[in-house]
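Audit log entry. Action: structure prediction of a protein-small molecule complex. Ligand: adenosine-5'-triphosphate. The ligand was supplied as SMILES and no pocket hint was given, so placement is left entirely to the predictor. Protonation state taken as written. Sequence taken verbatim from the request; no trimming, no tag removal. Recorded inputs:
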Amino acid sequence: MKIIAISNQKGGTGKTSTTVNLAAALARAGKSVLLVDMDPQGSLTEYFTNPEELKVTMYNALLDGATLTPLVIGEHIQLLPSTIDLAAAEIQLPAKRNQERTLSRFLRQFVGKFDYCLLDCPPSLGVLTANALTAAHLVLVPVSTELMAERTVKLILNTIEDIKEIELNPSLKVWRILATIYDQRLAHHKEILAALRAKYGSQLYPEPVRATTKYKDAVTSGTDISDFDPKLGEFWDELAGTLIAETQEQQ
Ligand SMILES: Nc1ncnc2c1ncn2[C@@H]1O[C@H](COP(=O)(O)OP(=O)(O)OP(=O)(O)O)[C@@H](O)[C@H]1O
Ligand SMILES: [Mg+2]
């Protein structure tokens, strides 16, 4: 099971949309995917289910060692959900010994049961993100093509270096930086994309995620983008294909 953290400390950069659409594309390619909502906002969970009805969530799994059975979302996709309860983990987890490895330890039971595990991270660099970066093999960094994009990427890359240096996860790798919410009609989006490309080269995925309201429509109806626009779905099929090609021999 390859574990991929989808992380950026900045809010609204397309982390949850990337998690949903990459998972759907991996499933279309026949891969099994475990989704983990590591964000107390619970956006990923709300995408698929009514959080009010959840009795056991990632909070209970991480803080009390509770058994949490993933919810079946589709033939190849299951979800470990979260609600606002998880916000308390930012205060309570640090009191535990070896707390950064709590998620990593919890996920061990799923090794061999799924091909991929995608961790939807919160927009912060607190203990939940530290747990995700400690558990992950790879990080995918969605960055919206707005002002400050470069500074935003630099901060998450520095955090990843810190996690490696303090030996929490020495083999952690940045898989790709993914430019998101890109509007090609806007000159400043073009400039920011070019600057990211100049700075990060092949580490930046060659195609940006286009800005379109169809992503919001997909959220409202709880489906991935390919249902709204097969052409947009192809973008995610290619991203998933790249991931599969680059990870399959190590699964
Ligand atoms: N390519 C896109 N084009 C237009 N809107 C988008 C696109 N991707 C995401 N959005 C919209 O932008 C908002 C933020 O997206 P999303 O929730 O995926 O970001 P996030 O990084 O997970 O946010 P947060 O930091 O709050 O967790 C949502 O309303 C989503 O529908
Ligand atoms: Mg999100």
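Audit: result stored. The radius of gyration is 17 Å. The pocket of magnesium ion (ligand 2) is lined by residues 15-16, 39, 43, 120 (CB under 6 Å).
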